Amino acid sequence: MFAKEGQGLILGALTIFAVLALLGWLNGGWLGPFVTAFGAVIFLFTLWFFRDPKRTITKVDAHTLLSPADGKVVVIQDIEEPLYLKGPAKQISIFLSPLNVHVNRIPISGTIEFDQYVPGDYLVAWHEKASELNERSQLGLRHDSGQKILFKQIAGAVARRIVYHVTTGDAVQTGQRYGIVKFGSRMDILVPPDADVLVSLGDKVRGGIHPIARLSGGS
Question: Which of the 8 DSSP states describes residue 70?
Fold first, then answer.
């Protein structure tokens, strides 16, 4: 199964493969197989990148956040968040390499109250300023308990296109598929300062599978 957001790029990669294969056949000699193989690598990598495997979402209590992305936890820190939480917050950042599944999922059920797309730079996704300077989407969600969560899709040095399918007023569910960042990215999740972080630096997580934090009031 492949992400619908990647259909155009998959078709483009297939076209490149077909053209290079034709050129390789017409050229003949030692260069022909090399050109054809190069086109095949481009096509197969694009298919791999846009894979969207069927996933059974982990059942958790209503106060637990599941990872919104596949990747590696690269930041856990206390910050001031002026945009939506408007105060102290805990930040968890997950880096997605080009080899990870790039489908993004809602971390916890609630209602989207804030929706902002920000064009920007393309620093490497693990850069400390990537959250502030890179192209990104920023979604603020109010949990049923009234607590606020902010989560961001952040483009990296290779990723050049952010796609998401929710907006202000939408009721969303834990683990719900909501978007994708094409070709390498990062996810930031910001929770209230009294939330319990359930992951450590270096942990590898999967979207909709691994718990990453628990809001206060949960069991």
Answer: S
Check if 185 is active-site: yes
Model pTM above 0.90 = no
Long-range contacts of 214-218 (CB under 8 A, 24+ apart): 214/61, 214/63, 214/64, 214/65, 215/63, 215/64, 215/65, 215/108, 215/143, 215/145, 215/147, 215/149, 215/191, 216/63, 216/147, 216/192, 217/63, 217/145, 217/147, 218/61, 218/62, 218/63, 218/64
Q: How far apart are CA 20 and CA 38, in angstroms?
A: 8
CA distances from 20 to 7, 28, 37, 68, 90 (A): 20, 12, 9, 37, 49
| pLDDT tier at 145, thresholds 50, 70, 90 | very high
Active-site residue, from 109, 185, 200, 219: 185
From CA 9, how far away is CA 43, in angstroms rounded?
9
Can you give the residue ranges of every domain in the chain? 4-49, 64-214
Q: What are the tens digits of pLDDT across the range 13-45? A: 678 778 777 777 777 666 777 777 877 777 777
CATH architecture of 64-214: Distorted Sandwich (2.70)
Angle between helices 31-49 and 7-27 (to 10 degrees): 170
Place of tokens 């690269």: 74
User: How far is it, in rounded angstroms, from Cα 115 to Cα 84?
Assistant: 10
